[in-house]
Design brief:
alpha/beta, Rossmann fold, two-stranded antiparallel ribbon, 24% helix, 458 residues, 13 helices
Amino acid sequence: MDSGPSAIDLFCGAGGLSEGLRRAGYDVRWAVDYDESAVETHRENHGDYAIQADIRETDPAEDGPDIEPGNLDLVAGGPPCPSFSTIGRSKLGSLEDRSVDEDDRNVLYLDFLRYVKHFQPRAFVMENVPGMLTDTVTVESDTVQESLPIGEEQEVEQSPVGEEVPVTEVIIEEMEGLGYTVDKFLVDAADFGVPQHRERLFFIGRQIGKALPELTRWYTHREPTDREKDQQMQIRPELRDSTDKSQETFKTGLSSVLPPFEPDREYRLPYLTVADAIMDLPPISPDGEMPPNQATEYTLPPVSPYQEWARNVPDGEDWEDQPLRNHDARWHNHLDLSIYKLLGHGVGWNIGQVSTRLQPYRDDVFSDKYKKQNPAKPASTILAHMRKDGHMFIHPTEARSLSPREAARIQSFRDTYWVPESRTDAYRLIGNAVPPRLGEAVGVAVRQTILTDSHTDG
């Protein structure tokens, strides 16, 4: 049995957070998700401990893991929260009259708290979208208990009826009502070595003690200097000309472009870029002629350190013998391909900014846009919307959108991480996932700041 801290993953999706926690040394013992493809993907990569279920219909005591309350180190997860704008505060904090037939994903975080309440973990981590920071709810009742989760009865200061209250304030009140010290943290995945700008909000709570991890202390990467910006790709040291002095980054003593997470690192590496992440992958094309529609073998060795890390070739094996999966091009019509070629690196057009002759959709129906990724910068946020079209994720040098494998690389999934062959499922699962590298960073910070102290105090 793994001796690392124990954890469970609620709303586990394809397993990005589980993978990050595993890399951080956790023993993830149980996971749950409603989506069949997500659970299949999680099981393929992590074993059979994930269950498919609607969490609203589960009982932590009967359906959850066989762990005694108080013996679990971490409850983690990212409940979907599309919008709180139309929900009043009393409804937000009530489990009464909920139906699985209703689209009440806004309050699924209450089911996260049900598991926290039952298992009484030493810590919890709840991940969500940054838009939650701007959402507010209206106080609809002066009855405090209506806004508290699962029947708790604590003395909580109540805002006046009719007042707009930040959703995050309500959620933190409810978490604190369960006996936890809680704070929220907004971070960008690029600061942790993910080749993508992806902001995410984390609520972190601890049961014993007051110190919470300041996630900024665990940054490993940073905005590049002007000189570093001229380099579109970091080259593996053994492949560089020995006279090339343009990349002093690798003279810092760091053995990897993905250094381990340590607080207050003296030197941080420049952001990883789209080129660092994907430019070693073989060319493919939508028409399937030359290049082919799908590539199942690598044609070049990894050029950047990140590419070498992503391929994850076992010791003693050759990269040429490793299969390449999920690297296939979706079909694009001739108009899309022509526009893709017109765009420069990092250039985007919002639908509606150009003539109707140069756009595929009505601008009063779809708020879509074209965006060619810049090879010299981190990618823009990978979204599940890719399953519908790839206009926002155009390849830097090829007239097509990113393949599922390229999207997975940008999310910090290694090439050996299994995802479905179906492009629709793959794009959706990859886009919705927590980047494993980000999950690892948060896991390490929680382990070092909270769990070590908790075990010592206990």
